[in-house]
Design a protein that fits this description.
Distance between the termini: 9 Å
Largest sheet: 5 strands, parallel
Order of helices and strands: HEHEHEHEHEHEHEHEHHEHH
Number of strands: 9
Number of domains: 2
Number of helices: 12
Structural class: alpha/beta
CATH superfamily of the largest domain: Aspartate/ornithine carbamoyltransferase
Strand content: 5-15%
Radius of gyration: 19 Å
Shape: globular
Bound molecules: phosphoric acid mono(formamide)ester, norvaline
Helix content: 40-55%
Strand order of the largest sheet: 7-6-5-8-9
CATH topology of the largest domain: Rossmann fold
Length: 302
């Protein structure tokens, strides 16, 4: 595999292997390996990042490589400055791989076509595959298998949610149900149309919290209501409020149901503080698993 852009590009077998290897590597406590010796990867951020930046930087170094981290503000890229293509070509002159966090998913797609180097999606407006893998790894770590698990996504269908949808479509054994206001589903469908992606989610998207489905949930996941570069008006805010992950919601799920969130989180907006800071929250475990899944992605590509 040359690039890691989206979950849909991996086979079921590759996904399961990646998750199991990540788990095994975590258990073995083997930090240093040499898959990336003599390799330098450029980590480029058009949007802010704490976890992705740190975990990729450390993962690459633990695999024997080095990193060059660039923020959009530091380089010439811009509408009236240097083009994306020239920027990507320049990265390719010096680096051995590209880890990109971009405003428009199309930038990642063109980078992967333009450049001979491996390209990794570190989040776009469309997807966040690394985050979804960390969530899947957390589920696997908690339950020993993904078979017959029920996942509920609450709130807007964000880039993270989209990667969960792709993982669900791989038939890894878990079910997915999404609770979100109709208008957010329409927004999601419009975005998918823009990227020429067909969606067929009517069976799994619900515009009310469905207590029967919630009662079977092994995991409840949400994301910020305002993804980077997006905003919501007060009318939409009133609609999304109904989909906050509260203690009341978690009490309706299975007693051992875990709560996950990509972070950063807004306490008492998309999730009640007592949920994210409570016993069933696995947000820190999920964030720490970013390191392990990303090491496996790097091993696959190099
Ligand atoms: N979850 C995640 O990608 O976090 P950062 O935005 O901090 O990288
Ligand atoms: N949906 C969020 C994820 C942040 C990790 C965003 O795009 O801002």
């Amino acid at each position: 595999m040359k690039n890691f852009i989206d979950i849909k590009e991996l086979s079921k077998h590759e996904l399961i292997n990646l998750l199991e290897n990540a788990l095994q590597n975590k258990k073995s406590k083997t930090k240093l390996q040499n898959h990336l010796s003599d390799k330098n990867l450029v980590l480029f951020f058009e949007k802010k990042s704490t976890r992705t930046r740190l975990s990729f930087d450390i993962a690459i170094k633990q695999l024997g490589g080095s990193t060059t981290i660039l923020n959009k503000e530091d380089i010439h890229l811009g509408n009236d400055k240097e083009s994306v293509n020239d920027t990507i070509n320049t990265f390719g002159l010096y680096a051995d791989g590209l880890v990109l966090r971009v405003n428009d998913h199309k930038t990642i797609l063109s980078a992967s076509k333009l450049s001979n180097l491996p390209v990794i999606n570190a989040l776009s407006n469309l997807s966040h595959p690394c985050q979804c893998l960390a969530g899947l790894m957390t589920l696997l770590e908690e339950r020993g298998s993904l078979e017959k698990l029920n996942v509920v996504w609450m709130g807007p269908i964000t880039n993270v949610a989209n990667s969960w949808i792709e993982a669900f479509k791989k038939e890894l054994g878990f079910s997915l149900n999404i609770f979100c206001p109709e208008i957010w589903f329409e927004k999601y469908n419009e975005k998918m149309k823009e990227y020429d992606i067909s969606t067929d989610l009517d069976d799994i998207v619900h515009h009310r919290i469905n207590d029967q489905i919630l009662a079977q949930a092994d995991a409840v996941i949400t994301d910020t209501w305002k993804s980077m570069g997006e905003d919501i008006n007060s009318q939409d805010y009133d609609l999304i409020k109904e989909f906050r992950v509260t203690e009341k919601v978690m009490k309706k799920a299975k007693a051992n149901s875990i709560f996950m969130h990509c972070l950063p989180a807004n306490r008492n907006e998309e999730v009640e503080a007592s949920v994210i800071d409570g016993n069933n929250s696995r947000v820190w475990q999920e964030a720490s698993n970013r390191l392990f899944v990303q090491k496996e992605i790097l091993k696959l590509l190099f």
